[in-house]
Write a structure and sequence with these properties.
With about 350 residues, the chain is of the alpha+beta class. The protein is built from twelve helices and nine strands. The longest helix is centred in the last third of the chain and has 23 residues, at about 335-359. It is elongated and about 85 Å long.
Length: about 350
């Protein structure tokens, strides 16, 4: 005769009592379209196989001890969590083999608290900040065991356009694999509306955008002649200045961003510089940081000119952009006369282009 401890109810249909060892088979047979995300706590049975596989929204990790998990937590959590945020959300299951067999992790209360703290530290390093409601940490007991758990991290799709890890990487999820994003993927997301622009107004013609790019190329050539140190370093400083100016009204417009990316494409940046630029795309850089890449007055004038041009790519300068431009020139130790000359030259360029468009 079966003992009560050997019997469970199906959490989906609340069937008559079923043997623990037969629960997974029952779910697979009676509920083939079952979505585990709809049930808060799946009834895990040690040694059984879960009725779902690793895919775009499920990742299994076969750790069985607290110490093994802690030793690999950063490596195993940061990338997957970020990929789920940047795609469609998902769940990480610690204590399940790749093929779905339930192993469990032996955990005491203090160890569970420590895991919560460690996960929070990892997520707190993401940029922009991850809202608490976007994820949940759940310790689900394995049936019949007091201290054996499956540790689940449920992640929702992020509300920001993109999230960077603490190591300044961006990942997305494809099938059951995480992929590191590059500039092309960033650009693709922008074109599909991941970054909204409240100031779109009248669309610019290809001729207008090509001319703006031509102006930026002239500026880049000037920076090469003016650079006294690493040209790539000064070029990065100029692109960071452009990104800072684009963020002046709290929203980096997609036209501004595409122009920055197009400039970056022309430069032979190493991986570290590309990561730095991607970080500036997500969050505005600090002026003090930008100035450090521009050691001479000539380079700072060129950077201010590029920044002003990028802002004018959308329309005349807004009050926020004028204020930001002034702050930038002050941080670059440029005089009010120099600031006025840079702004006047850039505005004249754009007015000429608009006159050409209206002909």
């Amino acid at each position: 005769m079966e003992s009560e401890s050997d019997l469970v109810h199906c959490p989906i249909c609340n069937s008559p009592p079923i043997r623990k060892n037969n629960l997974a088979k029952h779910i697979a047979k009676v509920h083939p379209n079952y979505d585990p995300a709809k049930i808060r706590s799946y009834p895990y049975v040690l040694g059984q196989t879960v009725p779902f596989e690793e895919d775009r929204q499920h990742e299994f990790k076969a750790f069985q001890s607290y110490f093994d998990l802690v030793g690999n937590l950063m490596k195993e959590t940061e990338e997957i969590f970020n990929a789920f945020l940047n795609t469609d959300g998902g769940t990480i299951y610690f204590g399940i083999e790749d093929k779905g067999r339930i192993l469990g992790i032996q955990l005491e209360r203090e160890q569970k608290d420590d895991l919560r703290r460690r996960i929070s530290v990892i997520i707190d390093r993401f940029e922009p900040k991850v809202a608490p409601e976007l994820y949940e940490l759940v310790f689900v007991k394995i049936l019949g065991y007091d201290s054996l758990y499956i540790f689940e991290i449920h992640v929702k799709k992020g509300t920001a356009s993109l999230y960077l890890t603490g190591r300044q990487n961006c990942f997305i999820r494809r099938d059951a694999t995480n992929y590191r994003m590059g500039l092309d993927e960033i650009k693709k997301r922008i074109l599909h509306g991941f970054i909204k622009d409240p100031r779109l107004g009248k669309p610019r013609s290809p001729h207008f955008n090509a001319k703006i790019n031509a102006f930026l190329q002239e500026i880049r050539l000037k920076s090469g002649a003016a650079a006294t140190l690493d040209h790539a370093e000064s070029s990065l400083g100029i692109l960071l200045a452009m990104a800072f100016m684009g963020w002046s009204d709290k929203s980096l417009a997609w036209r501004e961003l595409l122009l920055i990316l197009e400039e970056a494409r022309q430069l032979e940046f190493d991986e570290a510089k590309i990561d730095h630029l991607l970080h500036a795309i997500i969050n505005p850089p600090a002026l003090k940081e930008i100035a450090a890449y521009l050691p001479t007055e000539e380079l700072r004038i060129i950077a201010a000119e590029a920044a002003c041009t990028i802002a004018l790519a959308d329309r005349v300068l807004t009050i926020e952009e004028i204020t930001t431009f002034k702050q930038m020139c002050e941080a670059f130790e440029l005089s009010s006369t120099q600031m006025g000359e840079i702004r006047s030259a850039c505005e004249q360029r754009v007015l000429l282009l608009e006159a050409e468009e209206n002909l």
